[in-house]
Amino acid sequence: MLTARLRKFLTGSTSKVSTAQVRFWLSLSLTFAAIYSLLALREAFSSEYVVQDDARQHVFWMQRFIDPELFPNDLIADYFQSVAPAGYSTLYHLAAFLGINPLTFNKFLPLAIGLVTTAYCFGVCLEMLPIPAAGFVAALLLNQNLWVEDDLASATPRAFVYLLFLAFLYYLLRRSLLRCLVAIALIGLFYPQCIFLSAGVLILQLVKWENGQLRLTQDKRDYRFCFAGLGVIILVMLPFALTSSEFGPVISVAQARQLPEFAPDGRSEFFQESFADFWFSGERSGMFPKSLFTPVTLCTGLLLPVLLKFPSQFPLGQQVRSSVLVLPQLLLVSVGMFFAAHALLFKLHLPSRYTSYSFRLIVILASAIALSLIVDAVLGWASSPTQSPLPQRQFIALTTTALIGATLILYPSFIKSFPMTAYEVGEVPELYEFFQQQPKDSLIASLASEVDNIPTFTQRSILVGREYAIPYHLGYYRQFRQRVSDLIRAQYSPDWAEVQTFIQKYGIDFWLLDQNAFTPDYLANNEWLQPFEPAIGEALARVKQGTIPVVSRVIDDCLVTKTQNLVVLETACLQSKR
Questions:
Q1: What is the DSSP letter of 346?
Q2: Share of the chain above pLDDT 90, in %
Q3: How many other C-beta atoms can be found within 10 angstroms of the C-beta atom of residue 441?
Q4: How far apart are CA 65 and CA 59, in angstroms?
Q5: What is the pTM of this model?
Q6: In this predicted model, what pLDDT tens digit does every residue of 40-59 receive, in sequence order?
Q7: Closest to 529 measured CA to CA, from 473, 461, 568, 483
């Protein structure tokens, strides 16, 4: 009977799972992971000047590993180097030591991360339900969810969260102590926030639900894992506790409320006007990530608790192991850390970081198990000799199974931007080539959006740029904010003395201007400059009044290169003007 054979192939419910089945479904999982990654890789090398959006923050400074003379005394480079997790920066440093440019390494890394993450996801699912096809579904859903966001493509610290946390869960469920401890240490070295989730899961292993009551476990291995894991966590986190950042302190809630950057539509939008947005859907403050149920098949994960209550209708549920309880444990820990992060805002960084990744893993694994139970039940119903008529049931079961399979596999075809990479393509190569030829200690001042690409594509320092306006550490952001205000005032000043004082104060070598910069619309519509009051308001008022900034008068005299709507002025020329 076709449905019976298909049921055996998919769920293995009529025979013992073989090694060949595991290899087949794992290979298929890795194949899809590779396909998605290769689609992204093709985009990464589609042009000479391509960089992932967040890599412009977290990777550009690593070019120092190739040439230590780059970015000398650079506030922005020094800051992002200081906040880079040790494991993350060490990995890139190792690649640079082997002769691989950090920006090139950044493009290939998602492929490696994706494949290893897929293998761990497959393994974790099998620890909960020993059905290889279920592991494939979990891996497929994970990869689709990974590529509807740019986390993996960024190859920044957040790209390692799923890999390392799944590794932790896998070794915890398999009771492999040493490897579990290594995974915990790596979590702390790559994405420290998630180490608190590991601690919570370890502690909850000591509590068991027996006979309707919570009791402490009698299994000595649980205590061994918990105390050894907590010891590693303390060792990893101790340097964070004992070392003070040169760019501290972390911004307080009261200070953040005073900054427009944290207001709705701000650069680091946090404080939402709506209660629901703030607590539930806010990108930084909310509990639920927007892509939690993408693909939509992840909604089936909500059915798992219900399906497990009806073992006669869903017999495969009897094979679900007790290790599945780690999912509600992780849910409980995540919610607890979410509220702790709100209570200690911003000392534990952003609250959403404690639920966005873990909630996705919970839903993905639950959905894979639930879908397996549903497919098995449908095929079992069609194969049952007690039901009739048999041909009609087989048709319904096969059609249902085919629809589920097609939906799982073909879903990315219906997503407009899949895979999501957030790669930025540099569109002014002539500008990049010009700055590459300038001295390594050159400093470029600009309010133009193109300045965000300059450090990555030219390896030259900039004074400010929207991409680098990160306000969480006051020691950094106070200086950054002052720089932006000073640049706005100087660029729109009618006074040569003010312009020349600004150039001398910061040691500016080149001034990059958008040719539309001296129009009211340019200032009024430039969202990232709006928070920098009163400088932006004063500049806009001057432009509307017809006051001519002195910088705009000497564009032809001091021009050193021009491309598209951008011009570059040499500040040595500006200094000679009166």
A1: T
A2: 83
A3: 15
A4: 11
A5: 0.94
A6: 999 999 999 999 999 999 99
A7: 483
